[in-house]
Design goal:
Length: 106
């Protein structure tokens, strides 16, 4: 049984090595976009509000906390559109909106 587990580990790691660099789905794209954007703009991500597949990769809308305030409902957040290639590499990003946490969508 240990031999079977060892063979599975070796074969799956050898087979998956080329796939490790590509985005495997919407969840993977969202994680990659959050991690990359947080590293670039140095603001914590609050979540993802949209993910879409394109011919060339992924477009992810990431919500980030730009200015923390007290009370929390007056904090300023922003939504960034992050474009990734098929491997999860950053192609572009831009802020598409800025809003107060307590405000409703217009």
């Amino acid at each position: 049984m240990a031999d079977t587990r060892e063979r599975r580990t070796k074969s799956s790691s050898a087979a998956g090595s080329s796939k490790d660099r590509s985005v495997r789905g919407a969840e993977d794209a969202a994680r990659s976009a959050c991690r990359t954007l947080t590293g670039l703009i140095d603001h914590p991500s609050e979540g993802v509000s949209a993910v879409s597949r394109t011919d060339d990769g992924w477009v992810v809308n990431v919500d980030v906390l730009e200015v923390a305030r007290i009370p929390d409902t007056t904090s300023l957040l922003a939504t960034y559109e992050v474009e990734l290639d098929n491997e999860g590499g950053l192609v572009s990003y831009r802020r598409i909106s800025r809003y107060r946490r307590g405000s409703a969508d217009s």
